[in-house]
Design goal:
single chain, alpha+beta, 3-stranded antiparallel β-sheet, 22% strand
Length: 172
């Protein structure tokens, strides 16, 4: 006398079909789109940090940040994924990291011009001017601040997206 066990595998079969559909490229495309959105959010945060730290002068730096263009300054790689975000503005990294005021090897530099109130006006060939001594200009560190902000946001963003995908593909 044997006993038979009856198992209903219809739900398992349905789960396997959903898993196949998710793995067939739909989920990967959605994941790539989501990562693109994270890159855009990061750019928004970088812009906010540039403004908050009063880095903006002619807005060239602020408007120069893009994602994935040639000549970018920063590349982040994690777990096989790469995000290129940056700027082709040469001084962006100097403003972020800090820099010496004069070129390397030059301790003092004469700049011809004149003072108009509290503003110096550069005038090539002028007999008056100012003498610049070498000094360190502290960086604004807007990039690192944006990285810290996005790092704090990521767990919540990832959890929300995973819940959305689980609901969409598996009805969970």
């Amino acid at each position: 006398m044997g006993q038979y066990i009856s198992v209903n595998v219809s739900q398992l079969k349905e789960f396997a079909e959903k898993l196949t559909a998710a793995g067939a490229g739909d989920l990967r495309k959605e994941f790539e789109k989501w990562l693109d959105g994270i890159g855009m959010e990061f750019l928004r945060i970088v812009s906010e940090e540039i403004i908050r730290r009063k880095v903006v002068d002619t807005r060239l730096l602020l408007n120069s940040f893009t994602k994935g263009n040639a000549g970018n300054v920063w590349t982040a790689s994690e777990g096989g994924l790469t995000l290129e975000v940056g700027t082709n503005v040469e001084y962006a990294q100097w403003v972020n990291d800090g820099h010496k005021l004069n070129p390397p090897g030059v301790d003092k530099r004469w700049v011809p011009g004149y003072w108009n109130g509290d503003r110096f006006v550069y005038q090539p060939g002028a007999k008056t001017g100012m003498l610049l001594k070498q000094q360190w200009v502290e960086g604004k560190h807007y990039w690192e601040a944006a990285v810290r902000i996005i790092d704090r946001m990521l767990p919540t963003l990832i959890e929300a997206k995973l819940n959305q995908w689980l609901s969409k593909y598996f009805g969970v």
